[in-house]
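Ticket #4471: structure export looks truncated?
Reporter: QA, pipeline team
Priority: medium

Steps to reproduce: submit the single chain below to the structure queue and open the exported record.
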Amino acid sequence: MEPSGHAGEGGWGGERYRFGPVVVDPAAHTLTRDGHPIAVEPKAFAVLLALLARPGELIHRDDLLDRVWGHRHVTPGVLTRAIGQLRTALGDDAHHPRYIQTQHALGYRFIAALEGADPAPAAPAATPVGAVSGAADGPEQGRPREPETEPEPDDAPAAAAPPLSAAVAVPAGPGEAVPPVVADRRAPQAHGTWGWGAALVLVAAGAVAWLSRDGVPPATEASIAVLPFATLSDAAGDRYFAEGLAVELHGALAGVPGLKVAAWSPVASSQDPAEFGRRRGVATVLDASVRRDGGRVRINARLSDTRSGYTLWSETFDRDSSQIFATQAEIAGEVVHALVGVMPDGGEGLRRRLVPTRNVAAFDAYLQGVQALLKGGAARDGAEAHFTRALEIDAGFARAQAGLCRLGVWRFENHGDTSAFEAARVACLRANNMDPTLGEVALALGDLYRAQGELERAASYYASIEADPALRPQALVGLAKLDIARERPAEALARFDAALAARPGDAQLYAERGYQQFLAGQLEPAIDSLRKATQLEPGDAYHWSTYGGLLLTAGRRGEAAAALEQSLAIEPVESVLNNLGTLAYQDRDYAAAAGHYRRAVHLNPGSFELWGNLGDALLAQAGLRTDVETREAYGRAAAGAAAYLKHKPGDARAQAAMAYYRAIQGDRDAALEHAARAQSAGDVPEDVAYYLAEAFAWLDRPGEARRMLAAARADGIPEVRITANPLLARIDGAATRGP
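Actual output as written to the record:
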């Protein structure tokens, strides 16, 4: 009983097909199962009608392609995907089919018994299938690029599982909360940032310049966003496992040539996966739910088209925990087959990325470390313990060792923790001994040598991974930081732009660029970059903190206070407390400033500048007289600066700060020696000049102090930093009054 008309034209007659709980209405273009409408894309619906028109017959793949697509510039992969979607809609199983049977390498047949013709109603009873404008005309519009080759159907079945329900998928729909995953980029004042989302090799699609009028980047054809996976496990603390799997898959897919992967981001509760993907400018979204129960892991994974909202592929994996690596590789393989067709290098690179260790317990500990880094704040302190535990289980786990290295470098650069640098050095050397070919190891070594001041050596490691799609953005960031150190701000900005082209919409990259612009003396562009970072990730306390610090540096005190309060409302961190202390200091409320600084050094006792700020507040509060607490604060500052300078003797800011601390301690010769080192670089930026003005004022060398004040003013220092400092105000006032 074949109705008249062509499947690709929608000219079917007035009969409906019934089989099992399914009713197919060709005239209305609807499919219902158990009385509920099921969304199916127009091409998949046309394939179903072609099969229903000849029940029990084998229909060759080429015949279906000709009948539905007209063979117009499409590949057999489109048919495989359509069959997969039909199996999902019908509740069919490729391994034990009830409706659609695959004839290996030949085609498909409809095998269920039809219940006879059923008169069609006068009006459609369900939502039309062809809901996407233009989707039924010609090659599929608004869809991901089709695979170059078709996977063998019997070896790689399409979708055997039903689509994820709202109770399973993450995120589900509007109104359902999805806990955010906030990456930690801590930064005293306008402090440096690193971004563990970046350390985990997260990349994205498109280019910043391609934003459309409403700020939404256009979707590239082979592009995907990976959402944080939901956990359905009973254990409250098991979220790290689900989210860690998502991060691992994200990083692996990021390394596939030809596939654009959106930057890692938490998902707003008001967005469903398709809406989120559209906002990120990608064609598809991968989401999943994960349940661990004893020694079993169940993963419900789904790949969705962002333009139609339809499910392109879904599968349920119910496996033993020991098979987690193979399961990850299988999910990644399905995604790559669907979006780019042929697996590069036979999928070996993908499998290698997804099997960082052969020990499941070590992998579990590693994922806990990853989660701690993503959460940031106090949780970051636990990351070291988790990575160490992973190495205790698998002594050759190179990625865990590289993680320890980068964590130590970050602590050194952002907190002046000199003990962390030595630990980082040892960790990097061990990681290199474990696997010198691993890209993450090269990235860690680049960071280590850059922090140590060995710029050429650092550049060689960054350059070695610049061609790696997964690591290219981080290599470019590393090279940009080297450009800043070499006083090449234009080259640095070009590299940041290139990194953003590979990973648009990445808040961490904007934050990184902003801080480096600040170091290069480009304060207003730095503020713009940090503003963009706060817009992209408004829940990140560290972006707000750095933004507030830059505003404070620019003298925009009202805006700075608002940004700092926003940061403090998210999470109390020492950078915010430090900046709030600076605001109070500039208001001449020295007691309040000292209170903020005390809390800051309690959170980060390894920062010499925080101790110096506490000393300044106590000194001003006591009318420029030192007491026991003041001397202790400057003593801790001097000790920390001395340790820091052993590793970075060329840091002019640290040398100038040391000159001031030694002057306070009464060591005149040492103070003058450090002052000379600070000035030996030639140009004296405002912070260096400010510290040197304080040192010369304390040493009773007013002429040199005033010269440094003039240099600071010429470099744009806010006047309030001078007038609020009793030591500098006294020198400056004497100059104003004259002899």
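Status: closed, not a bug. The export was complete when the record was re-opened. Leaving a note from the reviewer for reference: The longest helix spans residues 628-647.
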